[in-house]
Amino acid sequence: MKKGFTLLELLIGMTIFAIISGAVYTSLYLGIKVWKNEEKNNSSLQEIILTFELIETDLFSAFINPDNENIKFKGSSERLEFFRVNNAEQLESVSFYLDSEAENNASELLVLRKKYYLDDQQSEAIPEVVNNQIESFKLSYFNNKDNKWNEEWAEELSVPDQVKVEIDFKITGSVDNVLHLEKYISIPVANEINLPEAEPTA
User: Fold this and answer.
1) Cα–Cα distances in angstroms (integers) from residue 32 to residues 18, 19, 26, 177, in the given order
2) Are 81 and 92 in contact (CB under 8 A)?
3) Are 81 and 153 spatial neighbours (Cβ–Cβ below 8 Å)?
4) Which tens digits make up the pLDDT trace of 162-198?
5) Which one in 14, 30, 55, 194 has a CA-CA gap of 20 to 30 Å to 76?
6) pLDDT tens-place string over residues 147-160
7) Rounded to an integer, what distance in angstroms lies between the CA atom of residue 145 and that of residue 195?
8) Cβ atoms of 122 and 93 closer than 8 Å
């Protein structure tokens, strides 16, 4: 005579199935979560690399004109302002600074570019967001004359030998939640142009 399953056997089978299903679901959930976190971290690291590359590229082409007080290099511990020649061979002013008024809990590193003309006029420009996950942004400048680092660049009609850029990035999911990185950027001493000062208008 064929015998069926008892209620106890069914309960035991259902319990084992539930345990196995729960374990499989948990493994899949954790795997997907780790994958998403890794994908997000990789994206954040790419943005960090691009942030430093942008600052380095612009700084490497920074120009000053000792005979024109309008073409100068201004630097503080929180803001960087200089002139460069862009890809269209136009002279433009560039400013990097931190906007702490951002809506999220991190600040935005902004860059402002304006085309420069000899009559000291500059085109209107809208600040561009370089990175919106910044905890802090600090700058310092090396001068070979006194062989030391300075938080302010006083010699505006010359360029520093090096600029030290320190940035704390907010990294979601990391242990410390903040990644501190530093980069030393050299500026070629030959970056000088001779542009006449604008003629005073009547």
Assistant:
1) 21, 20, 10, 21
2) no
3) no
4) 999 999 998 765 556 888 999 999 988 655 555 555 4
5) 194
6) 999 999 988 888 89
7) 26
8) yes
Using a 10 angstrom Cβ sphere, with 0-12 exposed, 13-18 middle and 19 or more buried, the burial of residue 139 is: buried
Contact status, residue 78 vs residue 100, Cβ threshold 8 Å: no
Which residue, among 122, 121, 118, has the nearest Cα to 68 in the 3D structure? 118
Instruction: Specify the pTM.
Output: 0.70
- Paired strand residues for 183: 165
d(CA 20, CA 114): 63
CA-to-CA distance for 40 and 174, rounded, in angstroms?
11
Residue 27 to residue 34: CA distance in whole angstroms: 10
Question: How far is 53 from 168, CA to CA, in rounded Å?
Answer: 16
Structure tokens of 114? 């304006």
Residue 35: left (phi > 0), alpha (psi -120 to 50), or beta?
Answer: alpha
Residues 6+ apart with CB under 8 A from 45: none
Count other Cβ atoms within 10 Å, centred on residue 181.
Answer: 13
C-alpha 182/C-alpha 99 separation (Å) is 20
| Tokens at 119, concatenated | 């009559």
| Amino acid code (one letter) for 199 | E
